[in-house]
Write a structure and sequence with these properties.
Layout (H helix, E strand, L loop, with lengths): L7 E2 L4 E6 L2 E6 L1 H7 L2 E5 L6 E2 L4 E7 L3 E5 L4 E6 L2 H4 L3 H4 L8 E5 L11 H8 L2
Antiparallel strand pairs: 1-2, 2-3, 3-9, 4-6, 5-8, 6-7, 8-9
Amino acid sequence: MNIPASLKYTKDHEWISVEGDTAKIGVTEFAQGELGDIVFIEVETLGETLDEGETFGTIEAVKTVSDMFMPVAGEVLEFNEALNSSPEMINKDPYGEGWIIKIKLSDPAQLTHLLDAEAYGNLIGA
């Protein structure tokens, strides 16, 4: 199981990669594996400022539909448009080309609430 040490994680299986006051968010390798083949991503929160824990979109796989939650508060700046035609990129490269949204952080101090790679690995039994 790939759990990059450079990322932070949530108990809901989202990851966040911070660069300055912006961040990319996606779902973990564990999450995409549990979901199975991903067929559709919906993000209707572009331009909205959401609180930590709020739903920013849904991810649809062959066997289920799941909500995706904000790891920290922020404004949704961008959706990875490539996922419209190739949602399976999340299955193939969840930490790279399969990122889902970019946000502008509202409160960088919230990052301290997130799990590091070791704690996330313990959570999923890796």
